[in-house]
């Protein structure tokens, strides 16, 4: 079992690794506070697999927090993939280690199910990040430490080179980035400039113990296959690690410049979605006016700001061709849990239409100005209109918000004819894929409102009495995308 030895005095040669963790925590805490979080000492989480690097990082994080003396709490987060027979043993090891070091321990089991065209490694990574985000929420952690080191960075950059990555991919792993767009958690990698040998020396200095993952020797995995070849490469090119990391830094600088230029353009083209299914939209004529490389940079940044990974170069070119170059049709391109569409000179990032319409919602209106209906992603709004409004007596009946069933008719202007809803939607330019989020409001068997079209406007003459306009206001969908 791992040592419970207290952090070493400052004369210990392993102290620089602890200092790197301390500086990373200070930088991460500054970003958390600048993002609007309270200035109280944060909870610091360490992604703990039970392997050598993560055990060393947990030890160093405990030492850094103890030296800071600011009351911060350290917790460990373990993801149980279930991919190895030893997974239960690793869980028990991590739990025992955290109990010995008096560190809070959180574990989450995940099922690795590769999507179409996705490898096991990528699927496991996606599941791991989702589990870590959930455990950060459970523990209250705002800072999440990863034990990636210089050798990991070299492997990452070389693998991406072999796969034809662009500027962003060749920048490697960043030392700090948001875990995802909504969590408020900063992901920190304090040891990216530390070689594996430095971590081995740290473990030796503190007599740390860990568990080994036998899959790390499986040459069927791309990273392991590359790792086996690195000693020969380093023998031929002694400065390989330093130069690869330096090249990644150059790519990161170039990527930042491209992002800034793209951000300036994106600010003139993008705006928030105006419909219940739309996250964001881009001005299509403005996008068409850009050179292809600039349009690609804008699309990449737009997708990244929406919280999803950018597509490959080939797929991005295909997207651009469908969304920008082709003039006809209304393409729908699935990507990372959203659907990209072209509609009426706009490029839209939409949530997928529901497989099943939301269930009907029964309402009892008591004079409120608004009624929020979360399942329908919007709200009903009421205001007085004694000329053309709905008689109050109608609205005092039991109300029901429900999906279209077909065959409904509505009068949309006083004195106008009754029209089929399908025809009215077509004339109003409401596409079929959006109608799934536009409910109907009924008072008994009487249609009161068709969201996206307006109120029913034919009501019997009645004695003077309050009348009310009813409107439907859609809420923009939440951005719930996986981390990059």
UniProtKB/TrEMBL annotation:
Residues 399-472 form the Lysidine-tRNA(Ile) synthetase C-terminal domain. This is tRNA(Ile)-lysidine synthase. The gene is tilS. It catalyses: cytidine(34) in tRNA(Ile2) + L-lysine + ATP = lysidine(34) in tRNA(Ile2) + AMP + diphosphate + H(+). It comes from the Bacteria. Belongs to the tRNA(Ile)-lysidine synthase family. One of its GO terms (cellular component) is cytoplasm. Its main location: cytoplasm. One of its GO terms (biological process) is tRNA modification. The keyword tRNA processing applies. It is found in: Cytoplasm. ATP binds at residues 49-54. Transmembrane segments: none annotated. Keywords: ATP-binding, Cytoplasm, Ligase, Nucleotide-binding, tRNA processing. It comes from Cupriavidus taiwanensis. It is an enzyme of class 6 (ligase). The N-terminal region contains the highly conserved SGGXDS motif, predicted to be a P-loop motif involved in ATP binding. One of its GO terms (molecular function) is ATP binding. Its EC number is 6.3.4.19. InterPro entries: Lysidine-tRNA-synth_C, Rossmann-like_a/b/a_fold, TilS/TtcA_N, tRNA_Ile_lys_synt, tRNA_Ile_lys_synt_N, tRNA_Ile_lys_synt_subst-bd. Ligates lysine onto the cytidine present at position 34 of the AUA codon-specific tRNA(Ile) that contains the anticodon CAU, in an ATP-dependent manner. Cytidine is converted to lysidine, thus changing the amino acid specificity of the tRNA from methionine to isoleucine. It holds the Pfam family TilS.
